[in-house]
Every structure is written in C-alpha cells, then in structure tokens.
Amino acid sequence: MLVKYFYITMWDNFGMEIGKIVGENLKQARKSLKLTQKEVAAHMLMTQQQYSRFENGVFELNYAQIVELCRYLDVTPNDLFEFKG
Predict the structure, then answer these.
(1) For 32-74, how does the pLDDT look when each residue is reduced to its tens digit (9 = 90+)?
(2) Per residue in 25-51, is it b (16+ CB within 10 Å) or e — as a string?
(3) Could you tell me the residue ranges of all domains in the chain?
(4) Which of 35, 50, 74, 80 gets the highest tally of CB atoms within 10 A of its CB?
(5) Rounded distance, CA 36 to CA 25, Å?
(6) How many whole angstroms separate alpha carbon 22 and alpha carbon 28?
(7) Do residues 31 and 38 lie in contact, with contact meaning Cβ atoms separated by under 8 Å?
C-alpha cells in the first residue's frame, strides 16, 4: 500500500510541475505576441478566468487545446513542454 501511495504522489507532483512549466511557457508565448489573457481566452471560447488556470498550472490542457494554442501563439508543443528531443 505504501509503494502504491508513493507512486501516485510522485506522479501527482510530476504532473503539477509539468503544468507549471507549460503554464509559464504559455504566458511567455502570449506576452511575446502582446496578447492579453482575455484575448486568448476569447479565441479559445472560454473566460479569462478559465484560461488563467492553464497559465497558472491549475488545470491541464487537452490535446485539442494544446494544438489550437500552439497554432494561435505560433509555438510548438515541444516549446510548451520544453522537450529538447
């Protein structure tokens, strides 16, 4: 039971860290285009508050949202996730 708890906790922490990295990269991409959260949120058909949760790493993006944000902000998924493949 302890081992299972350890792996779940470790995975949760890892996911939270990725969320923060992606959120920060979203914020930088948005700011480099001089867009507001409200403008990006409108494009994504959501409220500014909902979009803000992505930039703060509170909510995770789904695949469709990742693709659309990458297109809109002119970045790649690798840029968002800091993948140096």
Answers:
(1) 999 999 999 999 999 999 999 999 999 999 999 999 999 999 9
(2) bbbebbeeeeeebeebbeebeeeeeeb
(3) 2-81
(4) 80
(5) 14
(6) 10
(7) no
Amino acid at 49: Q
Name the pTM for this structure: 0.80
Q: How many CB atoms lie within 10 A of CB 72?
A: 16
Structure tokens at 54: 């992505």
* 8 Å CB contact between 73 and 33: yes
Segment holding 40, helix H or strand E: helix 37-43
The CATH fold assigned to 2-81 is 434 Repressor (Amino-terminal Domain) (1.10.260)
53: tokens are: 């949760």
Cα separation values, 48 from 53, 76, 82, Å: 9, 22, 25
